[in-house]
Amino acid sequence: MALLEVRDLRVAFNTPDGVVEAVRGLSFDVERGTTLAIVGESGSGKSVATQTITGLTRGARISGSARFDDTELIGASTKVLQKIRGNRIGMIFQDPLSSLHPYYKVGWQIVEMIRAHDHRISTAAARQRAAHLLSLVGIPRAESRIDDYPHQFSGGMRQRVMIAMAMALDPDLLIADEPTTALDVTVQAQVLEVMRNLQEQYGTAIILITHDLGVVAEMSDEVVVMYAGAVMEKGARRTIFYDHHHPYTEGLLASLPAQGDIGARLTPIAGAPPSLISLPAGCPFAPRCRYAFDLCWKETPPLAEVYDDPTHLSSCWLSSNREMRHLDREHADETDAQAQAAEPEEWSA
Amino acid sequence: MSDPLLRVEDVVKTFPVRSSSLFDREHAVVHAVDGVSLEVMPGETVGLVGETGCGKSTLARCIARLYPLTSGKVWFQGKDISNLSRGDLRPVRRDIQMIFQDPYGSLNPRRRVGSIIGDPFTIHGIGSRKEIKTKVQDLMETVGLNPEHYNRFPAEFSGGQRQRIGVARALALRPKLVICDEPVSALDVSIQAQIINLLIDLQDDFGLTYVFISHDLSVVRHVSDRIAVMYLGKIAEVSTADDLFGTTRHPYSRALLSALPLPDPDVADSRERIVLVGDLPSPTNPPTGCRFHTRCPKAQHDCVVTDPPLEPVFDDPPTHRTACLHPLAVGEDLALAVPHIEDSEIVADDTTEGGAPLTERS
Ligand SMILES: Nc1ncnc2c1ncn2[C@@H]1O[C@H](COP(=O)(O)OP(=O)(O)OP(=O)(O)O)[C@@H](O)[C@H]1O
Ligand SMILES: Nc1ncnc2c1ncn2[C@@H]1O[C@H](COP(=O)(O)OP(=O)(O)O)[C@@H](O)[C@H]1O
Ligand code: SF4
Ligand code: SF4
Ligand SMILES: [Mg+2]
Ligand SMILES: [Mg+2]
């Protein structure tokens, strides 16, 4: 059994403009000791989904299931969730300042966190553990830095402090929501290395949320591609990069600046993501898809095996039929000119 | 060879900061740009890369004369514009325009996009109301916006479209030089590609010259003819895009390139990673000698005292200049380098970023 099994998760918010369907039927598994990357454009529901799993979403309509090592998290009591958070599921967010208290010393915050979950540990022992954790994540002179305040650390160091805190209780699962998005590449490289090393050492499973396909290629074992609150494609890392099926995945990869071909026009995906309020029937990607055909506008495709491969799923009407996809590729090349012409497509709010 | 459109000569820009350090409360100064020289030819795109706080935006603002220079000179079309008065700057301001990162923050939410894009005409007193409207609608069409949306508010546009509004406004007065400061950094990749295409097309159509700032090396590489790598207010290496990637000389450039995550599992698995130790030193108190010596895998004793000049190394062409005393030879493996330098020689804060000074421990 997988460590975490998410099934048909749905999250909707009531807003003055209407019901925002942020997550619309999300399913995935996370295996022990592996890294699952969730990738998608901003607003695709990555953060809402993972925050809902850990019980941090307020004022939303939630349905579906998230089983973590035999405990159902959706609908679980605050007490159960609090115990699991930190203890068994560690979390790091994009902006480490928002989760570190500015008025308390960094070490004190880690010590409190350890003691909150382990009542038997002495303050001195917890403090020693905190210092050890800080040095594990590469903070020089950890023994003395433990008495510094968050603002005395740089952005990259704060993020490492957050990782230290998330790892304090040796969790089974670490959820990292855009942990390096606010960081420079050289600092990002340091933080990613820390995460890799900790996983190797402790066998922690990681859910890595990112919009950076480079980070996905460097870090993941499995990849979930999200769009408009739903999974478009799911598969092993190499499958997603070299043998992807879904037109959205194809579009994402094609829009990256390629190696070589400097100065050439890029291949963007036409248009913009849809509004999540009263999304029409059909495939959510249809308005931007170069392969779209009649059925796509009428019915939402299920997440189905690609060419009978149980580890590779795609939510596309062309998923099961290799022939059809080929034919459609040719058709798409013909109609590409039209898609390009429609490039700055209407964006409906 | 034609004359450069822009020549930046030894430009220095410092900002006074309030320091909480007990000693130099009066004298704390951020060395945001510290002696940068650069030429930009007509029709060329020069990329500026480097980590946060290395002075890219400050340099851009010095070029656009949005900041007075602390010292140094900026020549535009052969004319020294470093000390022009406000009035004399007016024509220059038409020729040099900026596009900013934040398509949300840089547009006033309460004004209609038509009037936002028309601002430059109004400010420079060009055309009647009706003429301005026609011009603005032409511009909207040029950048791929629907001219009928003239009366809409910024909030009614998506992120990519808001960036198009910024581009339209920058193009209004037919500038010669456009400085793009992280123009696509806030956008999702699929939208980012739309805006990059727009900038490439506009350059072809209007013969624009770009200074293109980004911390994303893959984007900069894609659009730039030449690239300057900055570190703590100085240029570490400048060359054609091809040479920078093909014959990387500066250890910092190499580290930057190796840290860029590549969207290709095979490459990601097989390439060497150089993970720099330590943090960016504070620009309030930059390291002596070569500013990179506190983190450089190749640092030697002389790096602590000598500030290396930016010049061709080995048999590099004059277009490829590197500020390093021990530049990388072709094929040299930086991952194998061992710094010959004592920890005690390293004289810099290891704790702070940006302009935030090291605070006293309580
Ligand atoms: N108005 C100002 N007053 C004081 N310090 C400033 C000011 N503007 C910039 N600085 C400092 O000057 C240095 C260079 O800043 P700059 O904004 O040019 O960096 P940048 O390379 O554009 O960084 P980023 O990638 O984050 O945009 C930084 O240390 C910054 O904190
Ligand atoms: N508390 C909330 N109330 C209403 N809408 C929300 C709320 N939180 C998130 N959303 C909406 O849900 C969608 C998904 O958001 P999010 O999960 O944050 O996206 P991502 O993390 O993929 O960028 C977005 O349209 C967002 O505006
Ligand atoms: S279902 Fe249709 S519209 Fe959706 S991705 Fe597949 S081909 Fe494109
Ligand atoms: S001068 Fe010395 S410290 Fe500076 S980059 Fe070269 S080798 Fe490194
Ligand atoms: Mg998010
Ligand atoms: Mg900047």
TrEMBL record, chain A:
It is found in: Cell membrane. It comes from the Bacteria. Residues 330-349 are annotated as: Disordered. Residues 4-253 form the ABC transporter domain. It is a peripheral membrane protein. Pfam families: ABC_tran, oligo_HPY. GO terms for molecular function: ATP binding; ATP hydrolysis activity. InterPro entries: AAA+_ATPase (IPR003593), ABC_Ni/Peptide_Import (IPR050388), ABC_transporter-like_ATP-bd (IPR003439), ABC_transporter-like_CS (IPR017871), Oligopep_ABC_C (IPR013563), P-loop_NTPase (IPR027417). SMART domains: AAA (SM00382). The keyword Transport applies. Keywords: ATP-binding, Cell membrane, Membrane, Nucleotide-binding, Transport. One of its GO terms (cellular component) is plasma membrane. GO terms for biological process: peptide transport. Belongs to the ABC transporter superfamily. This is Peptide ABC transporter ATPase.
TrEMBL record, chain B:
Gene3D superfamilies: P-loop containing nucleotide triphosphate hydrolases. The keyword Lipid metabolism does not apply. GO terms for molecular function: ATP binding; ATP hydrolysis activity. Residues 6-257 form the ABC transporter domain. One of its GO terms (biological process) is peptide transport. InterPro entries: AAA+_ATPase, ABC_transp_ATP-bind, ABC_transporter-like_ATP-bd, ABC_transporter-like_CS, Oligopep_ABC_C, P-loop_NTPase. Keywords: ATP-binding, Nucleotide-binding, Transport. It holds the Pfam family ABC_tran. Belongs to the ABC transporter superfamily. This is Peptide ABC transporter ATP-binding protein. It comes from Intrasporangium chromatireducens Q5-1.
